[in-house]
Design brief:
about 220 residues, mainly alpha, about 0% strand
Amino acid sequence: MTIPIPQVDYRKLRLSNLNTKPYAHLKLLLYWPLYGLLFLFVERFYPVDHYTVMHCALDDLIPFCEWFLIPYLFWFVYLIGMHLYTLLYDVDSFTRMIKYIMLTYTATILIYLIFPTCQQLRPVAFERDNFLTRFIAGFYRFDTNTNVCPSLHVIGSLAVMEAALWCRRLSKPCKVGFVVAACLICISTVFMKQHSVLDILAAIPICALGHILFFRKSERC
């Protein structure tokens, strides 16, 4: 039997009742502007004398492929879309996901402060000239190659995947789709030469901690 999931009527939301139980979870969204400021500080203003270059032999065996720009950018739709869906239809999944993100992203920022890293994997020139490679060239100029380990792209993808697997409203085929999307996004980071394989591996124990704290099956009612 399907257990009904209560939905929040946001039409009744007022500043005066933001602290009440039906709407208190919305305050968790304040983490995102705070995180944005922390990441901006680490990327642009934090003084670093030396970056550790992330590289392993497997990185050299993985070719650059511009087609992976598509799942790489889909990450933004994946992350924002799941926030909106769970806010509307499954507040429990939203709350667990955002707390998972708060823990893992904050831990990652602290790692960047203590252990600054960079990667030198980006191609100097592209073998092919097309819309994707031209877009990536511009993206490279905008996005720095520093603070890469662990990968926030991987951590964010697994946060969404965990929330999807937890959500009772989603069907099994839909959940499989979320898993496939998470895998493609994670893989895209190395084919886009945005991350080393080491950055993906470093994200796994952090995600494991988030899973244990917020998505243990034993907590299911």
